[in-house]
């Protein structure tokens, strides 16, 4: 399937999904974080949606934090590696991301096309998985598939904002039910709070680390090599190895940093 860079209608559709309540079931609501789930046609590919109100963080700061890969390496303790592969347009690029899964599960990685759009008081970043011939699946990782993942940031005035995170990912593996439950009850809320805390500290950090460098706002600063959409295809899940981890028991699992309640 050819890769298409999202247009305004795709961003508007994503925003509607973030704000909609129809068909979503509340899975968690505590400490300012709400998590909803939505069962899709396939039981392995559920949609999750999260929301957190960031009372003392501006929408602009949140947007910067979610773009800044240098800073991400400071706060995203679940991340193993991330790097940008190349740029497609002024507001679209391709990148790699890998993250630690709780042992004994195998670690996962992605190659995704990411696109972003500031729209009035809203800021959006969305991605989906693509295939690039120079970045095939790795031996030690399970290549997962993002069908649609993204952030919606809404400004609540001069010093406050609301962050939505929506994700539909095929983990390429038959995961045990306890993993799915743990994601919505522990991993997701912790990740949202971690973004919030990181955003509070970001302005001070950025003042000491290339304060004027924000290629996501100033495209002329972008030094990534240009790549063509023709080099990419949509990553289909059925072309990847599917592993069965459904028999793994929770007792053997080592909890990661992101799994404290």
UniProtKB/TrEMBL annotation:
Coiled coil: none
Gene Ontology CC: one annotated term: motile cilium
One Gene Ontology MF term: lipid binding
Alphabetic keyword roster: Acetylation, Cell projection, Cilium, Cytoplasm, Flagellum, Lipid transport, Lipid-binding, Membrane, Phosphoprotein, Transport
Keyword Cytoplasm belongs to the record: yes
Residues annotated as domain START: 20-204
Region annotation Disordered: where it falls in the sequence: 240-261
GO annotation (BP), single: lipid transport
Main location class: other
Top-level taxon in the UniProt lineage: Eukaryota
Pfam families per UniProt: START
Membrane-crossing residue ranges in chain numbering: none
Protein location: Cell projection, Cilium, Flagellum; Cytoplasm; Membrane
SUPFAM superfamilies hit by this protein: Bet v1-like
Protein name: START domain-containing protein 10
Source species of the chain: Oreochromis aureus (Israeli tilapia)
């Amino acid at each position: 399937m050819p890769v298409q860079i999202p247009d305004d209608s795709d961003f508007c559709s994503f925003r509607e999904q973030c704000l909609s309540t129809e068909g979503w079931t509340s899975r968690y609501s505590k400490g300012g974080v709400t998590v909803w789930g939505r069962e899709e046609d396939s039981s392995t590919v559920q949609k999750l949606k999260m929301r957190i109100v960031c009372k003392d963080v501006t929408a602009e700061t949140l947007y910067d934090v979610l773009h800044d890969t240098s800073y991400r390496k400071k706060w995203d303790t679940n991340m193993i590696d991330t790097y940008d592969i190349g740029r497609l347009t002024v507001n679209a690029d391709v990148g790699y991301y890998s993250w630690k899964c709780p042992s004994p599960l195998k670690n996962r990685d992605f190659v995704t096309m990411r696109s972003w759009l500031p729209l009035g008081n809203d800021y959006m970043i969305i991605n989906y998985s693509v295939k690039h011939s120079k970045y095939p699946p790795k031996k030690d990782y399970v290549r997962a598939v993002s069908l649609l993942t993204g952030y919606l940031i809404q400004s609540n005035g001069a010093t406050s904002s609301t962050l939505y995170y929506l994700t539909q990912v095929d983990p390429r593996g038959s995961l045990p039910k306890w993993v799915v439950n743990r994601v919505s009850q522990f991993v997701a809320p912790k990740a949202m709070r971690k973004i919030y805390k990181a955003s509070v500290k970001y302005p001070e950090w950025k003042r000491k680390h290339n304060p004027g460098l924000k290629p996501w706002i100033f495209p002329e600063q972008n030094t990534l090599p240009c790549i063509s959409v023709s080099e990419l295809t949509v990553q289909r899940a059925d072309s990847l190895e599917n592993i069965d981890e459904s028999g793994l028991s929770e007792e053997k699992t080592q909890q990661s940093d992101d799994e404290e309640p």
